[in-house]
Amino acid sequence: MDVVPADILVIGAGGAGLRAAISIAEASPSLAVSLLSKVYPMRSHTVAAEGGAAGVIKDNDSLDNHFHDTVAGGDWLSDQDAVELFVKTAPLELTQIEHWGCPWSRESSGRVAVRPFGGMKIERTWYAADKTGFHMLHTLFQTSLKFPSIRRFDEFYVTDLLVDDGRCVGAAAIEIRSGRMMAFVARAVIIAMGGAGRVFPFTTNGAIKTGDGMAMAYRAGVPLKDMEFVQYHPTGLPGTGILITEGARGEGGILINKDGYRYLQDYNLGPPDPWPRKKAMELGPRDRLSQAFWHEQKKARTVKTAYGDVVHLDIRHLGEKKIDERLPMVRELATTYCGVDPVHAPIPVRPVVHYFMGGIHTDIETATLVAGLFACGECACVSINGANRLGSNSLTELLVFGAFAGRNAAAFATSHPLPREALVVSLARAAQARIRTLFEREGGEESTSRLRKLMTHTMETGAGIYRTRESLEETCEFLTQLRDRYDRLQLEDRSNVFNTDLIQALELGSMLEVAQAIAHSALRREESRGSHQRLDYPERDDSNFLKHSLAIYRGTEPPDIDYCDVTITRSKPGKRVYGDGAP
Amino acid sequence: MSDTVLLSITRYDPEKHSEPVFQSYTVPYHEDWVVLDALNYIKDNLDGTLTFRWSCHMAVCGSCGMMINGEPKLSCNAFLRDYQDKTIKVEPLDGFPIERDVVVVIDSFMVKLASVKPYLIAKEERALSEGEYLQTPAQLAVFKHYTQCINCLLCYAACPQTKLNEDFIGPAALALAHRYNLDTRDGGKKARAETVTSNEGIWECTFVGACSQVCPKHVDPAAAIQQTKISASVDWFKSLLQGNRS
Question: Is A195 exposed, middle or buried (0-12, 13-18, 19+ CB in 10 A)?
Fold first, then answer.
C-alpha cells in the first residue's frame, strides 16, 4: 500500500477545503498540506452557487442585524456564539477574497455592490452577477496555486477516516485513475466534503454531492447533528432541478400561481405591496416559501406540467438590460433547459432539495469529538444555520469556518506528533476489507441504480417538505431493508482504471447511512421548526425540542438519537415574523 | 423523430483493449434530454461499465466535455433533439490521452494553468482593515468575460495548435493570464510574461479562432491571445525605445 505523509490532510477541495488549505499555507508555510478531492477542485459543487455571499459592509447595516436575521431565520436553533463569530468575521473574509481577485459586482463608485436576499432585513449580499459560487471557487482554486506547501491529489476517493485511540491519524483512499489503495497519514485532518442532496430524487445538487464526508465522520464515531433539517429551495427548474437563484427575487422577481396571483400573501408574508420589500413576500425565508408551495398544490392552484406541478417566477418587469447585467445565468439556464426566455415569459419553478443545515457535529472551533479531526462547510454543523439557513449565508460560511478550520488544524498539527506509518497502514488495510468484499463479490442480485432510486423515492415520500410519524416510520423501515440489500450489491465493472461503478456503489453506501440519520432524527423530533415540518406536530415546542439532535452510528443497526443544548446568548426564542410587522 | 436514438460511444479500458473501439447503445428519445442524460440512462440500465465524468448538469462545473459528432461539447447541454443523424457519435475530447472510455487525462492542462500564475499579484498591498480595492463597473467590464472560463477544455480539443505542439500553453490558460493582466488590482503582468510570451505561449497561436467558436461560456480566448500579442509587442517596442534612450 502506498503511503503519503503530510502534516495536515484536507479532504474536499471546494470552497471550504480550499479556504482551509490556503489558511494553513499562509499562517504556517512549513506545514505540508495534502489536499484530496474525488474531483478536480474546479468541479466542486461550490461552483453552482449563484446568488451571493452575505457580509455587513454598508453604513445602513450592522452586525446586529445580520445576527438577528440569521438566528430568527434558523428558528432559534442556531448556536448564537457561533453566529456572532460568523457575522463578525464575514466582512473580513469577503474582503480577503476580493483582495485575491474575486470579480465582485460593483457600484458606480467602485465599491462592492450588495443585493437583498430572503429573510435579510437589509441588503448585504455580495454578488458576482449570478455566478458567485463559480467565481469564489475559481478565485480560491487559482489562489491556492501560489502555495508550494499545498500538494493536490485530484480524483482521489477517500473511503474511510482512520482513527486510533480517539485520535484521527489519516485516511484511506482510492486513486481513481489506477484503483490503487493509499494511506494518507497526517497530524490533523479536515473534512470539507459538502452536502448530500443526492439522497433525494429532485435536487439542485450535482452528482458528486453524496454525503461521503458526513458518512465517514459518522462511521468514525462523530455524531451527525440536526440532520432532519433539509432545505428545499423554492425555485428549481422542473425536471432537472437546476437552481434559479434567490437573487432573481432579490432583484424584484415575483412568484405567481396558476391564476397569476401572488399567493405568498396568503401565508403570513404579505401584503404584496409596496414591492420590493425586505423580509416580505418573495423575500421571505426559503422554508416558508417552499411550504407555501405545498399548500398551493393542495389547493390545486399550481400549474401542471410533465415534470410535476409548478408556480411561475416572473422577472419580466426587470427588463432585458437588468436581467443581462444581474441575472445572466438565470436567463441562460431557463432558456437552455426550459425553453423559456425570462425576458419574455415567466419561469416555471418548484421547490427542490438544496442544502443540509445539519452535518458533522463540531464545536465553534470546527473541532469534532475525535481529536485532530475538524470539519467545515456544508458537511459540518457548527451550527449557524439552525433549522433553516438564510440564502447567501452558506458561501460566507465556507470562507469563515474554512479559514478557522485551517488555523485550528494547524495549531493541533504543530503540537502533535506525526502518527506512526505502520499503524496507519494497518488501519487502512482493515478499512480496505469493506471495499475488497464489494469489489470481489459474485452473484449479488442488487444494483446501485435500483437501490439508489428506491432510496431517493422513500426519502421524498417519507421525509420531504411535510412529514408525519407514519411517513417517517415507513421510510425508516424501508431504509433498514435497503441497507440490508446493499450488502448484496453486485458490481458490473471489475476494472482498476477509473471505476465509476465502484465509486457510485461506495457513494450509495454513504447516502444510505446519511438517509438513515435524516429519517430517524426527523422521526424523533415531534415538533415543527424551520425546514422540519410535522403535520402531526404543527407547533414549535421549545420546552422539549430547543435542542440539537445527534445521530450516533451503530453499525448495521439504525442510529441512536441523542440531544445537546443550543447556545443562546442574547436572542430569546421568539416568534418568526415576516411580511407586515417583520422586525 | 423516432422514439429511440442510437449512440456510438468510444470504449477503452487499458486493462482490456489495445486500442479504443466503438460500442453502440439504443436509448429512449426524449425531446428535452441531453447527451449526458442518455449516458446516465446507459450507465443505470444497460451497461454499468460505461465511464464518463459529470457533476452539475448545468454547464458550470466543466466536467463533461466530449466530442459529440466530432465537435467538442459539454454533454450536459448538447440536446438529443439537435442531432438529426441516425447515430450520435460520442468520443473523448480530442488532443488528450484517453484514460478510459470518454474520460481523458488532463494533467498537462493542470500544469499549464498553474504556469501562467493565474492569481492576483497585487499592484499595491492593502490591509483587510482598509476594505476592498475600488474597481468601477467599467474597469470590471474590461476583463469580466475572461473570468467566465470553466476549464472544460473544449477549446484545447478544438485548437489545431495544441496538437502540433503539445507544450503550447493553449487558449484557456492564456485567456486566464490575460484576465489577471487586465485587472486593475493586478500588477503581475511582468511576472506572467515569461511564460505567456515564451515559445510555448501566445506566439504559437495561429489565430484560427476555433477556441472561441466552441467555448460554451463565450470567453473568447482567441481575442485574449490577440490582445496579449499586441500588448507584448507594444511592451517590447517600449523597452526598445527606453533602451535607446539610456
Answer: buried
